[in-house]
Write a structure and sequence with these properties.
By secondary structure, the protein is an alpha/beta fold. It is built from three helices and nine strands. It is 20% helix and 28% strand. The strands form two sheets. It has a six-stranded mixed sheet with strand order 4-3-2-5-6-7, with helices on both faces. Strands 1-9-8 form a three-stranded antiparallel sheet, covered by helices on one side. The structure holds inosinic acid and magnesium ion. Inosinic acid binds next to strand 5, helix 3 and strand 8.
Length: 194
Amino acid sequence: MGSDCNSCQPDWPAEVVEVLLTAEQIDERVRGLAAELQDDYAGANPLLVGVLTGAVVFLSDLMRHLQMPVRVELMGLRSYGDAHVPGELCLTKDLGCEIEGADVILVEDIVDTGRSLAWLLEELRKRNPRSLKLCAFLNKPSRRQVPVQIDYLGFEIPDHFVVGYGLDYAGRYRNLPYVAVLNPEAYGEKKHGN
Ligand code: IMP
Ligand code: MG
């Protein structure tokens, strides 16, 4: 631990060029999303399904603002493609329960090309939930390749590679409490994980 006072100068990693969303902005929006969900699911007992690993910070904040009974599960998926050729998607972790007849809210960090969400929503739809909605923290509409309906959205952002609040580059930066734009020089070709 250094002895510098960082109260006037945020302690950014050198690779961060801009803070796009501050922790305060995020907190306010996540509380707003929780209020919307609470209104829409009043009297229900929805199942929140978080997508590993990027959605874990958003999910954990969102669920703590929900004053209603919810269940929580996690799913993982991976793509066998690379930065140039999108590959097959497959589950690396499945749900621990059936979702037939359940009100499912899929919770994701970011909708980018839309490929993984479209695949995952289809996978969940086959299991006959009573309802299935998508709650995404971020949306990058300019990058969309596959249409995805986002029912609850935190923020729309421009086409920047962002990290923080769960989002990573090469497994790093997930723990930043804000969303930041990374200097393109800090990353190589493969940027998009899960
Ligand atoms: P898709 O392209 O919409 O299928 O998104 C695939 C995954 O790539 C997302 O769920 C994120 O985990 C990751 N991803 C997409 N854009 C970014 C970004 O700007 N920063 C970090 N991860 C991203
Ligand atoms: Mg993700």
